[in-house]
Amino acid sequence: MRVIVLCPLPPSRGGITEWAKILKIHYKNIPSLKLKFINTIPRLKSYSDFLYIKRISAGLIEAPKTLYEILKGILYFKPHLIHLTTSAKFGLLRDIFVIFLCKILNHRVIYHLHFGRIPSIYKSINFESIFLSITLKLSDNVIVLDKSSESILLKFFKSNKIHFIPNGIEI
Predict the structure, then answer these.
(1) Nearest CA-CA partner of 111 in 122, 99, 94, 127
(2) CA nearest 163: which of 131, 153, 95?
(3) Cα–Cα–Cα angle for 79, 31, 80, nearest 5°?
(4) 119 — phi, psi (to 5°)?
(5) How sure is the predictor about 69, in pLDDT bands with cuts at 50, 70 and 90?
(6) pLDDT tens-digit profile of 92-104?
(7) 41: Cβ–Cβ under 8 A, 6 or more apart, which residues?
(8) What is the pLDDT of residues 7-19, one digit of tens each?
(9) What does the DSSP 8-state code read for residue 10?
(10) How many CA atoms does the CB half-sphere of 33 hold within 13 Å?
(11) Longest dimension (CA), the chain
């Protein structure tokens, strides 16, 4: 099986990057699995940039490059599915475009939510709850890290679409 994994890669820091490092090491133990990693971290933004305008600007400038890398990966790697990781917030707009592109090209998408704020996001209607709902509807399967997120999403989506898989750790 060939899978494109969209996630931040080192030297970026954070939970998704750590997850990707573990995955890169251990997937090689499964001979039938071939992964292609595409880095989604904006190169124009420092990890410590908390100014919204800098984060949005960097994401908008990087978005066409990310979409090009995905399109190139789909055309040459010919994946069976796409695994997209997200920490939400401003990345959700990028995620909508990525998932929509994958759907146009007839590729299944696993959407991996690497955050536990889903219960608080769904308490109000704002850009994050609207964009998250769009991405979840477009995705074929969704992975959540915690039971409270799973519980909330099961109120809105079919049970065979939402999957609870907690983060692994390197031992």
Answers:
(1) 99
(2) 153
(3) 15
(4) -60, -40
(5) very high
(6) 988 999 999 999 9
(7) 8, 9, 12
(8) 988 877 788 888 8
(9) T
(10) 13
(11) 45
